[in-house]
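Customer escalation, tier 2.

The customer says the design service returned an amino acid string that "doesn't look like it belongs to this structure." They asked us to rerun it and document both sides in this ticket. The original structure tokens are below, unchanged.
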């Protein structure tokens, strides 16, 4: 039976589908180092970034709306001996109230884009600000929308990537479809995931959907400022380079 909680159906496969995703971790660890910790992660999922921050020596609280994703995060924290530094809390980034403040709040891997309306976005940013100490920092990333991307035919299926699985020797072949709603600035994405064994035989096929809202650079800057933040910097990637025409990510650091 399908869970009523968003993203619960990702819990069993998320870490395998996104096994390649490591390029953003050093950035968020560096932000943790600069803040001195502890750190609040909103939209922590299975703990990919939270656990890296804990491994670097900082206490971290991770919040997510999916109980099953949180269960996976807790299991990994126990397995890696990091449970003492990690606390994982079920909650909505718009409304969760931890009754404490942090020097750093983070929203990695486009989790902010799960806020599908401007009201949702403002609530999430206001709640992040409410959990920040005076002068605290917010760090988050979103994808950088561009006109060619938004013009792709909704019916087109495209190859996303192949993701080798170290434990099994299998490969996840990921295909995608984007259904753009330019009025709402959302994308209802579909992923089709094929698991291939070592002989390239398809062992199973999975189908997952999620919706995200895209936000343009200066729209995002205005939104942050309207919610009481001062933008310190926006990068065109996690290497700290400037925003360029072909930048895939917009990485924001803002101060209260």
């Amino acid at each position: 039976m399908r869970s009523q909680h968003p993203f619960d159906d990702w819990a069993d496969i998320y870490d395998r589908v996104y096994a390649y995703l490591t390029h953003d971790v050093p950035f968020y660890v560096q932000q943790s180092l600069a803040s001195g910790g502890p750190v609040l992660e909103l939209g922590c999922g299975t703990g990919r970034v939270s656990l890296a921050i804990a491994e670097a020596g900082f206490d971290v609280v991770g919040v997510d709306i999916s109980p099953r994703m949180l269960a996976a995060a807790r299991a990994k924290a126990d397995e890696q001996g990091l449970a003492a530094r990690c606390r994982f809390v079920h909650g909505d980034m718009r409304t969760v109230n931890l009754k404490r403040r942090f020097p750093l709040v983070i929203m990695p891997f486009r989790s902010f884009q799960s806020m599908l309306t401007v009201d949702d976005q403002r609530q999430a940013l206001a709640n992040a600000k409410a959990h920040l100490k005076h002068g605290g920092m917010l760090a988050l990333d979103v994808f950088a929308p561009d006109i060619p991307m938004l013009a792709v035919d909704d019916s087109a299926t495209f190859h996303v990537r192949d993701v080798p699985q170290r434990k099994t020797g299998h490969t996840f072949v990921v295909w995608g479809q984007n259904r753009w709603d330019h009025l709402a600035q959302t994308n209802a994405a579909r992923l089709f995931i094929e698991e291939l064994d070592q002989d390239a035989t398809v062992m199973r096929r999975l189908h997952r959907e999620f919706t995200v809202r895209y936000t343009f650079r200066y729209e995002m800057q205005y939104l942050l400022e309207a919610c009481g933040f001062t933008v310190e910097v926006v990068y065109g990637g996690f290497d700290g380079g400037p925003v360029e025409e072909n930048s895939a990510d917009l990485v924001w650091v803002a101060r209260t």
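Tier 2 assessment: The sequence is consistent with the input. The first helix runs from residue 14 to 17. The mean pLDDT is 95. Sent an explanation to the customer and offered a walkthrough call.
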